[in-house]
From TrEMBL, chains A, B:
<dbReference type="InterPro" id="IPR037509">
    <property type="entry name" value="ThiC"/>
</dbReference>
<feature type="binding site">
    <location>
        <position position="426"/>
    </location>
    <ligand>
        <name>[4Fe-4S] cluster</name>
    </ligand>
</feature>
<keyword id="KW-0411">Iron-sulfur</keyword>
<feature type="binding site">
    <location>
        <position position="302"/>
    </location>
    <ligand>
        <name>substrate</name>
    </ligand>
</feature>
<keyword id="KW-0004">4Fe-4S</keyword>
<feature type="binding site">
    <location>
        <position position="139"/>
    </location>
    <ligand>
        <name>substrate</name>
    </ligand>
</feature>
<feature type="binding site">
    <location>
        <position position="279"/>
    </location>
    <ligand>
        <name>Zn(2+)</name>
    </ligand>
</feature>
<feature type="binding site">
    <location>
        <position position="423"/>
    </location>
    <ligand>
        <name>[4Fe-4S] cluster</name>
    </ligand>
</feature>
<keyword id="KW-0408">Iron</keyword>
<comment type="pathway">
    <text>Cofactor biosynthesis; thiamine diphosphate biosynthesis.</text>
</comment>
<feature type="binding site">
    <location>
        <position position="275"/>
    </location>
    <ligand>
        <name>substrate</name>
    </ligand>
</feature>
<dbReference type="InterPro" id="IPR002817">
    <property type="entry name" value="ThiC/BzaA/B"/>
</dbReference>
<keyword id="KW-0949">S-adenosyl-L-methionine</keyword>
<dbReference type="InterPro" id="IPR038521">
    <property type="entry name" value="ThiC/Bza_core_dom"/>
</dbReference>
<feature type="binding site">
    <location>
        <begin position="236"/>
        <end position="239"/>
    </location>
    <ligand>
        <name>substrate</name>
    </ligand>
</feature>
<feature type="binding site">
    <location>
        <position position="109"/>
    </location>
    <ligand>
        <name>substrate</name>
    </ligand>
</feature>
<comment type="function">
    <text>Catalyzes the synthesis of the hydroxymethylpyrimidine phosphate (HMP-P) moiety of thiamine from aminoimidazole ribotide (AIR) in a radical S-adenosyl-L-methionine (SAM)-dependent reaction.</text>
</comment>
Amino acid sequence: MRTEWIAKRRGQANVSQMHYARQGVITEEMHYVAKRENLPPELIRDEVARGRMIIPANINHPNLEPMCIGIASKCKVNANIGASPNSSNIDEEVDKLHLAVKYGADTLMDLSTGGGNLDEIRTAIINASPIPIGTVPIYQALESVHGNIEDLTAQDFLHIIEKHAQQGVDYMTIHAGILIEHLPLVRNRITGIVSRGGGIIARWMLHHHKQNPLYTHFDDIIEIFKKYDVSFSLGDSLRPGCTHDASDEAQLAELKTLGQLTRRAWEHDVQVMVEGPGHVPMDQIEFNVKKQMEECSEAPFYVLGPLVTDIAPGYDHITSAIGAAMAGWYGTAMLCYVTPKEHLGLPDAEDVRNGLIAYKIAAHAADIARHRPGARDRDDQLSEARYNFDWNRQFELSLDPDRAREYHDETLPADIYKTAEFCSMCGPKFCPMQTKVDADALTELEKFLAREEEAKKQPVA
Amino acid sequence: MRTEWIAKRRGQANVSQMHYARQGVITEEMHYVAKRENLPPELIRDEVARGRMIIPANINHPNLEPMCIGIASKCKVNANIGASPNSSNIDEEVDKLHLAVKYGADTLMDLSTGGGNLDEIRTAIINASPIPIGTVPIYQALESVHGNIEDLTAQDFLHIIEKHAQQGVDYMTIHAGILIEHLPLVRNRITGIVSRGGGIIARWMLHHHKQNPLYTHFDDIIEIFKKYDVSFSLGDSLRPGCTHDASDEAQLAELKTLGQLTRRAWEHDVQVMVEGPGHVPMDQIEFNVKKQMEECSEAPFYVLGPLVTDIAPGYDHITSAIGAAMAGWYGTAMLCYVTPKEHLGLPDAEDVRNGLIAYKIAAHAADIARHRPGARDRDDQLSEARYNFDWNRQFELSLDPDRAREYHDETLPADIYKTAEFCSMCGPKFCPMQTKVDADALTELEKFLAREEEAKKQPVA
């Protein structure tokens, strides 16, 4: 289906979903997305046309099952994987992709930074993936000049970007928003610049005393993106790396530039989402989301966390799930997961699982709080199963059925599922779910209360 | 010190901190607490007198290191332990206490429900504990009538309550707020009544068609509490057991009664905190906190979670830490932890650790968001250590140094601490903390930018 639709578009000057939406066309991708989200196709089209929603779907990614990112639809979750210079095995990365999909990732970023076979790994991931794939091409650009930042040229960037686009990458982080005049603003920060790509651009600008080449060549990138329908994920190079640095002048100056770039891409019907922090105290999260909407004309916001405290390395899937849930509630469209290994080491399979579930929780809690139609249905069904001691059903409805079963079975045998009206937490006599207030007894009680009420009204003899 | 001060008070008709505070006295406990919180002793006294803060400190708990619970002070965390009928070993419970203290519990509830040696376990815990101990005496009351709820009498309750008070319990959950007329309000709930104590009282009222004996004998309980300075933790029997049931009529009707009981206890200078939900969607948390303040005249709020979604058994320390952090930010005084085993089984030592750290994160994030003086100091210090690659210092400042070290050392050896300017997450070349914008280079850049600015102003020749 999608293949035919793509064939029709191939060779057109602009093949982006936004381009078709703005012509009033409902693409196959929009129909597919509308079904998944249980929303009218017209709404999807209008949101894409308006730039408030994106459907990242490179025409060279044919096995993709299209999805959308935007405030009108359910909150999404992104997982990061990637080969490092020390470990780069194609099968391993494809396994990580499957794991991420199993635990509910809506999109996946391949953040591979080295190992020599980056192109092969990327191609394997794209071909195997039903979900959109994002990349940060600056990492490979740096590899291409053997790590010598000052040697990078605009042509190096454009060359790698075109390659990724041609391979089928659905969205790319482009660090075009950090400008040379923003750099003095980081002076008072504790952790300076903590975006990997942003740091590279910053060092380049400091060395050359020239403007950010991704900014000066932004229109060239737009031209590439139009041909393949790659979506921008505008990188926030100046995102805060600790709660101290949150919402500072540097961050907000870059955000303003990101807004300008958003509108420039929109002029060419190219889809855009905007990346956000980072580390942000809870009382500044709403401000950050609203400010992004204002500066970036409501282009979808895609945040990393944010972590609401810095003091819990080893538990940053939790410090950040708190911020992510709130960000989602305030209107963030996609949450980039953080694993327990953040700041400490390369995540393994179990870390990917823990990070993803924490973020599925955050995104789902956000959908409930935003009153999305049907968002609470699964909660209600699980609560009913819980109240009725239907253990199997309760586990099936869980975000991680294996984990729920495993924890239950640690202290009570599985064969008790059918009969046990308790778990080992409170034991057989004290399970609070046993308090079933019988409807007949309640009716009796109501009659009693009514009689009492009546008696009170009688004059004392 | 405290022993002398207690000796002076022994035998007085009312020995509560509130009683002394209202006479203008700053007790030794208040001085101690003021030092811990870095607040003026007069403020502690005034808050205790006002009822907005409690210092749970039974005069029969001499090894206690007094602490306070209230909106003017740091957000606190409670851990639950307890022997079940299947497992009841004194040493095990005392070990759990030490574990809870190690991971930062501010108070601890002994929720033992059976095993025959409840009194011994309780005494051992109180004697070993530097933190306040809370209990739910209704569990033992039920044991005393061999589990036959309908046989319970007010005297059974009072007998057990007096025993706990005499043993040195610092605060007790008393389910006095659920009234017979509230019961019909639970009809439309999915999970009915999920408070263990509340369920017992509900069944008793349904059977006898009589008012809650803890309500009708509330003044008798006050008399006991005055003698030992036990604080009320007014139980919320009608807390929601799923997001569907949150903020419903039943819950709010009971909350109103809890407010009346708060003021009745205050008339006798008895300290009170009020328990709260439970399961609450994010968008209803602020309402719940504000409503409690309004109905209960700002008596400290002590919430269990709340869980912001029901679909993640196995991860309810996370679903609830999200709600707890927000509740703390909105003004909740103490957060009762939830472990990953919630709804599934009895927590083990590792679960206690995971639950507590999740809640230390929530409470600390709340303190930061409330801008408590100095709340972010530790974050800033850790962020500085992180930026400077001072790994040991970073670990020391962590909420769980052992876990942070363990995760780091999984993929890189410990002997690298002194030299490594990276971890295995991004590897040696891509660590974002390496982007150190040199101050001299920045000064050079600023001069360059100034010259550029100047050049723009020159008229074109």
